[in-house]
Each structure stands twice: as C-alpha cells, then as structure tokens.
Design brief:
The chain is mostly helical. The chain has eleven helices and no strands. α2 runs parallel beside α5, α7 packs antiparallel against α11 and α9 runs antiparallel to α10.
C-alpha cells in the first residue's frame, strides 16, 4: 500500500513537470511575477506594521520601485547620450585614421600588397555590399516571421507588473491557503523548511547587494586612478547592473572604452580600463561572491563556483542568474535529509576527528 502511494506520487510529480514543460512560454511572466512578489513582500509587510492597508502598502512598494528605476535612468541616460554623441562626433576622424594609418600599417606588417582602391572602408563596402544586403534581407524575413514571438514578449513585459501587483497584494493569503493543502503530519516539517529557505534566500539577496556595492566602489576607484572621465558614473552603473552575471563587466568596459578612445593618448587609459575590470572580476569570482554570498547562504566557495558553472551549462543565461538562489534552496533540503539520516543512524559519528596514521 505504501509503495503504491509512492508510485502514485511519482506519477503525479512527473505529469505536473511535463505540464510545466509544455506551458513554459506561458508560465514565464507568472514565474517572473512570483519572484518579484517574493522580493517585495518583506517591504510590504513592514509597511503594514506601520498601519498601512495591504493594498496601499503594495502601491507604495511599486512607487518606490519605479522611483529607484527612474533615478537609475536619470543617471544612465545622460551618460549614454553624451558618450554616443561624442562617439558620432569623433567617428569620421576614427574612420579616417583606420583607413589611412591602421590598414596600410597592417598590410605592411603582414607583407600583403594591395592594388589601388583595395584598401579602405570604401573598398570594404564595395566588396561586401552584396553580402551585407543578403544578410539584411534574411534578418528582415526572420524578424517578420518571429513577429508573433515578439508580440508575445511585449505582452509578457506589460503583463508582469499587473501579475506582480495582484500576487504581492494576496501573497500572505496565497501562502496560508497553500499551507492548508499540506498533509497535517508533514505540515510542520514543510513549513519549517520553507521558512529556513526564505531566510537563506534573504541572506543571498543581502549578500548580492554587498557584492554590487563593492564592485561599484572597485570600478569607480580603479577608473579614477587611471583618470578616466565619468569614472564614478561608469563604476556605479556597472556595479548596479552586476546582479546579472557579466553584464556589469561588459557594460562597464564598453562605456569606459568609448570614453577613453576619444582621448588624445588613449593607450594607457585603455590598458587601465581592462586592468580595472579584470582585477574586479577576479576579486568578484574568488573573494566577493564566495565570501559575501556563499558564507551567508551556507555554501562552500567550491559549490558556489560549481553552481554557477552548472547553471550556465544546463540552462544558459537564466541558469547563471538563478544558480545561487536554487543552490541555496537545495542546500536547505540536503541539510535536512542529512540530519534526518543521522537521526535514523545514531551509530554514525560524523563529528569524530579521524585518527592520523602512525608514521
């Protein structure tokens, strides 16, 4: 009887997993909204303790979120606008230098002989214009065919805030009703595991904020040392977007390089940019993330590195993004199973210090 019950549970879990797999494109905005509601729930609860109704507390959370996003846009917008404008102003001079200095120098270095009109931007465009036109046509056809997917993505983008509002407003009610569905014998254990997982994920978010702040300081200080313009702005923005793996690195290098390349002597500042971001990336991977995030969620640095690598290998970009939260939640279940196993086998003494062999 007990074996039949377990088989039925396995079949039910398999069917639910298969259904989730089929509905994955539809579930994406709901999963995103659930994550955002989970993140915003503690702040809404605190506002409720200040005698605010739940709906007003959720509205306040939304307003605060949009205010932070608006401040980020105000910080990033002028920086990007000034950099793009400066780049377009300097673009004719850069193209002229490439065509008249760099390309002939490269041709001389590799020992190639070029006929008249074979070297330069105009020659390149004349030679590959047909290929570029073919690629452009194919890209246009691909975009046209994927119009439905693009429309679905835009719809999901507008759907997420609406779903987040309703989920955040009814979050506590949802948790109570889910708890009522649990078997009474296992309810206390499952609720305890859920609370421990919530504490671990909260520690992860706090650790990630510390990593972002530390990277912002490192980026800003390093760029300022090498006298890069907009060092503080580039460093702060790169640190803020570093919650997405490698986005802060790429974003910062591109912005700082565009700033440096327009200087009269760009070589050493450009080297300084790459040194700054390389050192920051090494510190993040070997010190900041393992210590500030790994220690807070109870994960060994080796497991942190393996989780990120495995997440990227299995699920790509989103796997990298969710690797540490998933590993933190899984660690709670593994520790629970380990302690339960030790309780069932008291003869095991895992805390005993192994004896060293005699020499």
């Amino acid at each position: 009887m007990k074996m039949d019950l377990r088989i039925n549970w396995l079949i039910a879990i398999g069917l639910v997993g298969w259904l989730f797999y089929l509905l994955a494109p539809v579930l994406t905005p709901f999963v995103a909204a659930a994550l955002l509601a989970y993140i915003g729930d503690p702040l809404a609860d605190r506002l409720q303790r200040l005698r605010l109704p739940r709906t007003l507390a959720v509205v306040a959370v939304f307003l605060l979120t949009f205010l932070v996003l608006a401040l980020l846009v105000l910080l990033v917008g002028p920086l990007i606008r000034s950099q793009v404008a400066a780049l377009f102003d300097a673009l004719p001079g850069i193209l002229e230098q490439v065509e008249q200095v760099w390309l002939p120098g490269i041709m001389d270095f590799i020992g190639a002989e070029a006929g008249e009109g074979d070297v330069g931007i105009s020659a390149f465009l004349a030679r590959y214009s047909d290929m570029a036109g073919s690629w452009g046509a194919k890209a246009l056809v691909s975009v046209t065919r994927s119009g439905g997917a693009l429309a679905a993505a835009v719809l999901s983008l507008f759907l997420v805030p609406v779903l987040t509002f309703y989920m955040l407003r009814d979050w506590d009610t949802i948790l109570v009703r889910l708890s009522a569905l649990l078997p009474e014998r296992q309810r206390e254990t499952i609720v305890g595991l859920a609370r421990e997982t919530d504490e671990v994920l909260g520690a992860f978010l706090r650790g990630q904020l510390l990593v972002m702040f530390s990277l912002a300081v490192i980026y800003s200080a390093g760029l300022a040392i090498f006298d890069v313009r907009f060092a503080v702005a580039i460093g702060v923005v790169s640190g803020l977007v570093s919650f997405v793996p490698y986005l802060g690195l790429v974003f910062g290098i591109v912005l700082a390089s565009l700033t440096v390349v327009l200087e009269p002597n760009p070589l050493w500042p450009l080297v300084g940019v790459f040194v700054t971001f390389t050192v920051a990336q090494l510190l993040e991977g070997s010190v900041l993330t393992p210590k500030l995030v790994g220690d807070r969620i109870g994960l060994h640095p080796v497991i942190v590195i393996f989780s990120v690598a495995a997440g990227g290998q299995l699920f790509g970009f989103f796997g990298i993004l969710l690797a540490l939260p998933a590993a933190a939640a899984l660690s709670v279940l593994v520790r629970f199973a380990f302690h339960r196993y030790l309780q069932e086998h008291p003869e095991l003494d895992v805390d005993a210090t192994p004896e060293r062999p005699e020499e």
